[in-house]
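**Tokenised fold:**
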Amino acid sequence: MGVGIQVLSPMPELLSYWFELDDALVFGRYVNEQIGAMVDQAPERFMGLGMIPLQDPERAAVELERLMEDTRFRGVELGTNVNGLSIADPRFDPVFAAAEETGAAVFIHAFHPQDVTHLIGPPILKAVAAFPCETALTISALIASGVLSKYPKLRVAFSHGGGAFGLVLPRLVHGWKVLPALQEAVGESPREIATRIYYDSLVYDEEVLKFLVSSFGEHQILVGTDFPFQIYERDPLGAVNKAGFSGQITRSICEENARTFLNLN
């Protein structure tokens, strides 16, 4: 694929937020050990993002601090909700505070979208159609709840180009301008916050990728693949090249932005 360095993260289902805490700790450490062992096989080619037990945010923060002492890991992967509770809820503040303090990169992936009974079609439709909406709702909630303003140094990235958030953002910005409740909740324009977030390039369409760059900025887009799942992008670098960006923007997307997100600079 032409990929020089790949960041390995848990399959989202492995996050297992429904486990009891003791089981979650044992299982999470096991998954992290396996990712670490893969990094050890080729440390010049792999880096890791681990998992933490979000069902207990205080303990999750401790586990994050412990994980970040391991130089094979650059941060963690989080799901968008924990048994139906959005990670924008204040009870998850200890996790975001620990991530900001330790410099951990936070990669957020759509997870178990709620109330999808109205989706008619094969079960896989949830992953195809509901995941992007779940991601957009989570980003909106993290902005409107003040989480991303409270932790301005937090480096957070979202899967699948941020899902549908690029289309939600203009409406959110307009609402912030004209609705007092949103102005009181969010002290700065949602667009300012949105342009500090990172988004992967996994959108399967060059026009949509160009839209992401124009919406969020050339320094906020990272290459994503979804490898090794069936829906993965077979030619991630080719997908970026098809968009016809300048050489500098292409370098930013394919390398420089990831280095910043992962705090490699």
